[in-house]
Amino acid sequence: MSKPYKRLDKTQAAVLMVDHQAGLLSLVRDIEPDRFKNNVLALADLAKYFKLPTVLTTSFEDGPNGPLVPELKAMFPDAPFIPRPGQINAWDNEDFVSAVRATGKKQLLIAGVVTEVCVAFPALAALEEGFDVFVVTDASGTFNELTRDSAWRRMSEAGAQLMTWFGVACELHRDWRNDIEGLGTLFSNHIPDYRNLITAYTTVKGVK
Amino acid sequence: MSKPYKRLDKTQAAVLMVDHQAGLLSLVRDIEPDRFKNNVLALADLAKYFKLPTVLTTSFEDGPNGPLVPELKAMFPDAPFIPRPGQINAWDNEDFVSAVRATGKKQLLIAGVVTEVCVAFPALAALEEGFDVFVVTDASGTFNELTRDSAWRRMSEAGAQLMTWFGVACELHRDWRNDIEGLGTLFSNHIPDYRNLITAYTTVKGVK
Amino acid sequence: MSKPYKRLDKTQAAVLMVDHQAGLLSLVRDIEPDRFKNNVLALADLAKYFKLPTVLTTSFEDGPNGPLVPELKAMFPDAPFIPRPGQINAWDNEDFVSAVRATGKKQLLIAGVVTEVCVAFPALAALEEGFDVFVVTDASGTFNELTRDSAWRRMSEAGAQLMTWFGVACELHRDWRNDIEGLGTLFSNHIPDYRNLITAYTTVKGVK
Amino acid sequence: MSKPYKRLDKTQAAVLMVDHQAGLLSLVRDIEPDRFKNNVLALADLAKYFKLPTVLTTSFEDGPNGPLVPELKAMFPDAPFIPRPGQINAWDNEDFVSAVRATGKKQLLIAGVVTEVCVAFPALAALEEGFDVFVVTDASGTFNELTRDSAWRRMSEAGAQLMTWFGVACELHRDWRNDIEGLGTLFSNHIPDYRNLITAYTTVKGVK
Amino acid sequence: MSKPYKRLDKTQAAVLMVDHQAGLLSLVRDIEPDRFKNNVLALADLAKYFKLPTVLTTSFEDGPNGPLVPELKAMFPDAPFIPRPGQINAWDNEDFVSAVRATGKKQLLIAGVVTEVCVAFPALAALEEGFDVFVVTDASGTFNELTRDSAWRRMSEAGAQLMTWFGVACELHRDWRNDIEGLGTLFSNHIPDYRNLITAYTTVKGVK
Amino acid sequence: MSKPYKRLDKTQAAVLMVDHQAGLLSLVRDIEPDRFKNNVLALADLAKYFKLPTVLTTSFEDGPNGPLVPELKAMFPDAPFIPRPGQINAWDNEDFVSAVRATGKKQLLIAGVVTEVCVAFPALAALEEGFDVFVVTDASGTFNELTRDSAWRRMSEAGAQLMTWFGVACELHRDWRNDIEGLGTLFSNHIPDYRNLITAYTTVKGVK
Amino acid sequence: MSKPYKRLDKTQAAVLMVDHQAGLLSLVRDIEPDRFKNNVLALADLAKYFKLPTVLTTSFEDGPNGPLVPELKAMFPDAPFIPRPGQINAWDNEDFVSAVRATGKKQLLIAGVVTEVCVAFPALAALEEGFDVFVVTDASGTFNELTRDSAWRRMSEAGAQLMTWFGVACELHRDWRNDIEGLGTLFSNHIPDYRNLITAYTTVKGVK
Amino acid sequence: MSKPYKRLDKTQAAVLMVDHQAGLLSLVRDIEPDRFKNNVLALADLAKYFKLPTVLTTSFEDGPNGPLVPELKAMFPDAPFIPRPGQINAWDNEDFVSAVRATGKKQLLIAGVVTEVCVAFPALAALEEGFDVFVVTDASGTFNELTRDSAWRRMSEAGAQLMTWFGVACELHRDWRNDIEGLGTLFSNHIPDYRNLITAYTTVKGVK
To answer: Which of A148, B129, B138, F177 has the greatest count of CB atoms below 10 A from its CB?
Structure first.
């Protein structure tokens, strides 16, 4: 009767980053800019860290929406990048869907700007086609909290699971012993409080 | 097991604007007045832009609830306008239901004041009769957030999909190439940040 | 697949006011005291206005929880009043359940303090026995918003419908023409903005 | 011992609009975009309505800061417009100061983006030169509330008076009878609640 | 060097209630309507309780601003009531100033709608003429918190003291023994938490 | 069709406290530290009061995550305590699962830090194995409200019931008469408002 | 020209705790109960730790205001305790003023409930008599933030310095080396985050 | 009568960074961690960019307060760094004061953790000695907003000017033409919205 537990598996997951464009980012007001930038880069870092196939796409990037933010372009030089000529729902673009299918993965981690359009539309379409959809909510932004709440509800009721980048990283990693250094670095770079814990710990450890 | 993805289709959708009256608007305190006015007019503009059949109605407008706001009256001179003599639920008024049915549309976009009554009651009734209901949450207002949250939950659990005007516009339009100018103008008129993107873009484009 | 639309019917509804006691009220911090007092009295007024059978109960009122607030006692001198000797869930008290059953009503409007206990426990029990439960969320209070949100979710997922007193009044009344004066007075007494609309309207109407 | 009451006088006042540029506006996050746009246009409208000399300036507008928003350019075609080649403090630009002095006014109404720089710097400089400075706080925006509060305190302690556009309009107008229609229109165009009051009033007045 | 302590004295104080009109009240959004209504009535009640001379005034009440709220009219049938024909600053109306002077009091308690105009303007003017001004901040309302903060700062820097109705009542009363019953009733009627304390106390006291 | 009412039963319930570690606690920012500390200790106290079998576990406690907070260690000297060598999901640790199974209980009360990982992962796993899961939301903390909301939704949709420690205590206790003193002490120690009620009550009771 | 720097000196300071009574505490809603209780006890602990003479007083404690909270009574068995028979301003009570004078201290640390009355009135009176007044803002509570802000402004403009208990402790202590253990314990008992730092630090230190 | 305009001058200014230590940072809860980290690093970057002499200090760094965050240590390898053995007020440490005096600067930019102690104490002491003090409010953090507001008021009334890092950078730079590239880089690295403006601008500029 309840939604079953779909557990993220690093061999099954792909990341879709949808419309993180320089212009569109100025529309995001449900998350502070410093935090949002950090969340998006954290998701990108974890995609690389876990070697998840990643697909990038933009909407109408030769107009006011602006180009994909350069950091993402630089981090995924070899990832499929599909600048859509006009389709608002990325899933309406065949190249994008092909790129997603080509990853061979069933679990899709989706993030984008703005949440109720660039995330929700492909998420709903992917669910309809039988993919398991995990929305990375804190790497997705929109106009305000009212808009976000409406969008979350729509996706969630359609079967999507709402997660944040930290939860995704933890569910993919499973066990610290797989790579303490690597996961610690990811957290240190994107969670100031965690970085401070590490600094304090290693200092005392080292000094004594 | 999950709620299926109902995708808005401009050939299938009608807009119902319920009780946006000068008196009742002073009750709305879950959205700031400047933003709320903008959202309501944005929904009206998109209804016209996509040529969606639109039905207007008011509750007891010869009393303190006050008249329909003049902007809406002026924008839809030929739309069916049903001033209800007393029914609180617009769906209890036969003329209103007939007007809705006469549109021949299955997808109903509903907005109104106040959310838990003027929106929720006809939304629940329409769902019961098999319509697909999309609540335009940000063009609907009420007393406070507690009230709104209760209302959203009730409608959503009954099968309504919660959207905002921007999401509606994007889902109806499907592809920028259908009319770049038109959609851009709609956004420019109702999203200050988007207007600024366009201004900055066209200035640089033109100056260089 | 969705929760069906249960529509409130004044011939089918009863009101349960659970533990609105002088001591317990000091625990309520998710709604401001002026507003909460107003909401509780509004619910009481509407119970009287629609002549809904009403059942009052208190928890351990000879201790720190304190007595039922005197206004409620005064408004319902003939209503069944069940001071529970110890049961925390009112539904565990046979006198209370008998009083509820004796109303002969199927639709239960429940409000109380605190939401996650005094409201949620009898609400869940009543749902289990087949009653239709409508929680009057804004006449129910608790420690903070986190607590409230948890409680709402639990009740709502068990089948309860979340409403506020204004929505309840409107759904019960159905049509202004049933009694314009009466409903207007109820709103004027409990919604300052509505009272102002009436004042402004009648002044202009009368002066001209 | 206290700051003396400087009363705005429409024969003594000039308006300085500093750096309301398309790019810089995306930095404003202490006021919602819909409201901020409205406030800025309201200030511009009142400047025109009271025929106050107005000076416009921009900072480095050929770069990312972007052009002056077109609405302002269009509303003040004959006003001095000083695009500063580099000075961050407009008061460091001689053309700007000359334009201000040329107005012959002693009371300066200043608004701009961002508050702690584009508003505060010229405000402090003008105070030092003996002008009476009135900061129009709600037509001035910045990164967040912490930044705003710091800036307000600095200006206020230096002798500036903090006002909002509505207070400015009222203090300049002095008496409704000077022009009921004109002031009413200004308010109706920029205060949705006031517009609704007028709509409701005139409807009842006219219908009876 | 600091602002001296002006202590309220019931033989020296008068109350000025400025523009609490049915229309204007819909503009108040910095305080919730239930609370604001309560605060205004609490101030009126304390004016009566301490027998402070009270002056009422309205701005342009035959238009959209609407009439003085009827409760105030009813509570002060014999108080001077000056409907101003057009002056926005009540202090520009000679009848109003005469009525204030006729009270023979030096300490003025001022409250009104909206704070930055109807309160601030007469407050600043009265300070200039040497009155001691006490703004009753919680019985004064305006558009939003940004506006309120600007207005408070302006008045406070000009020498006004900011108080709330409860502080005013306590400073005027000085000693519970002057009239325990009377002050207790005032608090019980306007502070729900205090009413509950009294209910709980007297119940235990009486029952034991 | 709705989620059935699972009622907590003190003979059926066990408590799992997951990763309340000195380092990890500095990550919690969705609940204030004073309140969060109180909530965690309240849950521990109720576990002891109702003699519920309790299982403690930590994640990688020899690193920056830090040790289990000493209060918990001291309160449950004989409880199974499983410091996990690396598994992020406690349910992936066989010792932990064995300890849970060894309690012989079907109803699991889970709290931990951080909510979306240390609570959500074992909660989802336990649900899958047929346990009834009750998340103690206010004794669980995480980075911010966005993260919390995502996590609540995921667990709730999978079948977990969201409760707070106070609701848990009340549902387990059932009837004040089972032990007035004991429950009163629990509340007095962890709810300042309740403590004040008791103080006031017993004082009047005793003095009269 | 600015307010001079008065530095707290443990040989010059006394603590006045005004009206922290069981009933009155239920009025405090500008600070959460868990935090407020902690702050008040932290102030009491620091008074004891630095051996500052402390004066306790209550207002009308045989009525609904309730008794002094027992913790304070227990912590200061030998301190002067002046239950005022009726004076609202503690400074109007000769015994209280005598007790303050008897401390021989010039620097008064004042905290109480409610801020704008029980704290502000004696603070203003003491300033007038030449004492240096330090308001411990976070151990003082009132109805809401609007009320608090008004009160802070009034006291601050009259010459009071606003501090919080942590700042007071640090300014009195001057140098950690005076007593590392003692100050650390004070912080550990009242700042959960600091306690965690100590736990983590000493654990690593000890284990290595 | 007002506080005079002290204008920052890059030849006159020094930066004091007080107690930005890994442990103490976990106490900061009035600014989000992502933003706070960014603000602190932005201040450090601007100190380097404008070549301002910078003094670093820590409080008791061999205990739970933890070491200076490594980023700061790395950025200022040659700056005076004074780990204080115990003095809480850095100004009580002679080495620190000597280091400040050795800069030969009169304008001190101070930031630190926590605001009401590590910033306020040396700020007040420096003011007393005739320095011009500029508090960099957004690179200073503390427990909560109540604490911050008290601290701001105390420093501001003693003569300090409250600024934020962005305002500081702009006031020091004076004119974009002094170094467009340099200032742009500083903003791009620490203001995500500004970075997006630059990206969008240069993309259009370059592509056309």
So the answer is: B138
